[in-house]
Every structure is written in structure tokens, then in C-alpha cells.
Design goal:
The chain is built from one helix and six strands; from the N terminus they run ββαββββ. By secondary structure, the chain is mainly beta. It has one domain: Hotdog Thioesterase (Thiol Ester Dehydrase, Chain A), CATH 3.10.129. The protein has a six-stranded antiparallel sheet with strand order 1-2-4-5-6-3, with helices on one face. The chain is globular and about 40 Å long.
Length: about 140
């Protein structure tokens, strides 16, 4: 079992994050090589567009919220992604980047019903994307 198991409804190829590097109440840093995977479900015409880094940021947000709940002894809270804003991309595609991507995310707003996070994606120390993602709690999002 990894630190990520059970925190997202995503599994298998739909999980964009490989591992948690570090986290605390204020921020999470995760890393991944899933942008290189030929079976990544977000690929189109054998390429992975940088716009999909918003999903990577959203998964980092969800993992952070899940870890915070787990640490507080609270159940996981199902949610639906409701917006992506201020998305800035420094390249068109990301599938050609060697090594890991690192995604940092920190909450701007987090309460029982909704979350808004700012995220930054870096590769080899260079920022390649940033933006904000928001989610709302929703009972229909419960797995199973």
C-alpha cells in the first residue's frame, strides 16, 4: 500500500501521480513519470498535451485533502472538479520530458464543502505550468 492508496477514486492508468515527496497542512509536493507512459489515457495522437497538467494539479489537490483528512481521523470526502482557472502553460506537450515532473499544491480555500488550490508543475527545476483548481464535495462522487 502506498501513501496515495484510497485517497482518489482514480486507479491504474487514470492515476497521474506516482508518489508523495512531502506534505504538511499548508502544502503538498508530489512527483510523477506518468507523463511519459504510452498508455496514459489523456494522450491523443500519441502525444500528451500540457493542458492536461490541470488534471495533475487536481489530483495533487485531492491527495493533499485526503492526507489531511486521514491525519485528522476523518473519512475521505468525495468531490467533483468544478473549475480550472489562470492556467499558464510554458509548452504545448509534456510527453517528451525526461525524468519526473514535480507538482506542488497549496490550499487557498478549504472547508467541508469546497476546496480551491493553487498549483505549480516543474520539470528539472523549471516551471512548466501553474494555475488554480477548485472542487466541491458531492455525495454522488462516492466510489462504489
Amino acid at each position: 500500500m502506498t501513501e496515495i492508496d484510497g485517497l482518489l477514486p482514480h486507479a491504474g492508468h487514470a492515476l497521474m501521480i506516482d508518489r508523495v515527496v512531502r506534505w504538511d497542512e499548508a502544502e503538498i509536493l508530489v512527483a510523477t513519470r506518468r507523463h511519459r507512459s504510452p498508455d496514459n489515457p489523456l494522450r491523443r495522437a500519441e502525444r500528451l498535451a500540457a493542458v492536461h497538467l490541470a488534471e495533475f494539479g487536481a489530483q495533487a489537490m485531492a491527495i493533499h485533502g485526503g492526507l489531511r483528512n486521514r491525519a485528522a481521523g476523518l473519512p475521505m470526502q468525495p468531490a467533483l472538479l468544478v473549475s480550472v482557472r489562470d492556467l499558464e502553460l510554458q509548452r504545448d506537450y509534456i510527453d517528451d520530458l525526461d525524468g519526473e515532473l514535480e507538482i506542488s499544491a497549496r490550499p487557498l480555500l478549504a472547508n467541508a464543502a469546497s476546496w480551491q488550490y493553487v498549483f505549480t508543475v516543474t520539470h528539472a527545476g523549471t516551471t512548466i505550468a501553474s494555475g488554480r483548481v477548485a472542487a466541491m464535495g458531492h455525495p454522488a462522487a462516492r466510489p462504489g
